[in-house]
Amino acid sequence: MTYHHGNLRQTLLDRAAEIIAESSVEALSLRKLARDIGVSHGAPARHFKDKSALLNALAHEGHLRMSIALDKAVEAAGMDPLARHNAMGKATIKFALKNPTFYNVMNHPDVLKHADAKLNAYIFAQLHLVQTSASDAREAGWLPDQDPLTVFAFSTAAAIGAASLLTARHETDFFEGIDVEKLADQIIDVVIPPSLKALKALQEIEP
Amino acid sequence: MTYHHGNLRQTLLDRAAEIIAESSVEALSLRKLARDIGVSHGAPARHFKDKSALLNALAHEGHLRMSIALDKAVEAAGMDPLARHNAMGKATIKFALKNPTFYNVMNHPDVLKHADAKLNAYIFAQLHLVQTSASDAREAGWLPDQDPLTVFAFSTAAAIGAASLLTARHETDFFEGIDVEKLADQIIDVVIPPSLKALKALQEIEP
DNA sequence: GGTGTTATGTTGTCAATGCCTACATTTTGA
DNA sequence: TCAAAATGTAGGCATTGACAACATAACACC
């Protein structure tokens, strides 16, 4: 009856996300995906030239959602540059914890390898935002002795490292029974004090 | 003439590493691997039950080499717990930069997913070593206000995050023309002062 | 030195997959 | 209305991972 599916593109993306969540990126097969949805094995090609193209689209959607989450968190943090950068770091890890599927796709080596120009530009722009945020925090008094690039790379490394460490839920789970969200916040608070005020207080006490 | 290859197992591993270095983990095919070496397509099965088994073996070799590199770096750092932990962090990133192939295999999601018990145990043990190192540094005066788990997770996240950030050599190369080894060292020095003396000096100046 | 056993490699086969092409049906818009 | 574009189908092809049956080499033991 309905020869045309109507919204196959979105259905493909949704079901693909489900399959990846259940197993992994590698386990995703275009033919199985088509079978699941109840459409012929050639149909997906009309919407995604390639398997890479589909994963690319998923990664893009993930980046969109993540940047929205980060924006929101940063705005909620107010005007203090340290608070904003701190919030950005925490929000990054939180996104990874709450959206493991998207996060996995976004960081999968094969996906990154075949990322198209648009996706690459998006990633680049996002990194640039983090860089600016780090520089702002530095100019407000955070790590004044380090150059801006080091400060940026340090905070970025901590955030993505924490995300990858805490989302790694394979056999060797080092964080069994631990509140990883809380741990994530604590990590970021070590990276950058949660406010300019906290930074000053820290400097007063140290002698 | 020589119907038996003689050391097919090692040859497979070596050639596999080359192929991965040239392209990627996904691009590795058992049949192409066999063709390259000049052996029938069924031969690899005698040495590796599975494609996963081969990658597992490669990952294991990578972890072995890395732990040797870390041991060496830590011993060379002397007795100061801060210097040792600092050296461990730097050596981790350096290993990733100098052995991108092994590092990629070791951290590839598909490889981790199919890691056998032995490999998992090895990874677990390695993490435990880092945890001990972090605790020692903490007891020597580093970040005394944070709990040991936070201190461990913070330093580990920074190291693996820096490794992944600095080895990500895709289109969007944010670190074009930058001395990444130097940057890596600077990042780790922000994470943990390179010596107990440096830590004290830092605390004196701060007021 | 012969011989049975194990280790190693070969060949053939199968199902699954990604991608391509030719074709069918629906939708659209001038 | 009807031609063109969009969307879905069906079949085919080369590649791949895994398996099984077989061949040969290496080795241990008498």
Q: What distinguishing features does this structure have?
A:
mainly alpha, Arc Repressor Mutant, subunit A, homodimer, DNA-binding, 207 residues, 0% strand, 10 helices, elongated, Tetracycline Repressor, domain 2, 2 domains
Question: How would you describe this structure to a colleague?
Answer:
- The structure is a homodimer of 207-residue chains.
- Chain A is mostly helical and 207 residues long.
- The first copy, chain A, has 2 domains: 1-49, Arc Repressor Mutant, subunit A, CATH 1.10.10; 51-205, Tetracycline Repressor, domain 2 (Orthogonal Bundle).
- The longest helix of chain A is centred in the first third of the chain and has 26 residues, at 51-76.
- Chain A has helices at 8-22, 30-37, 51-76, 81-98, 100-107, 109-113, 117-139, 148-167, 180-191, 196-205.
- The interface between A and B is large, with 49 and 50 residues.
- The structure holds a DNA duplex (30 and 30 nucleotides).
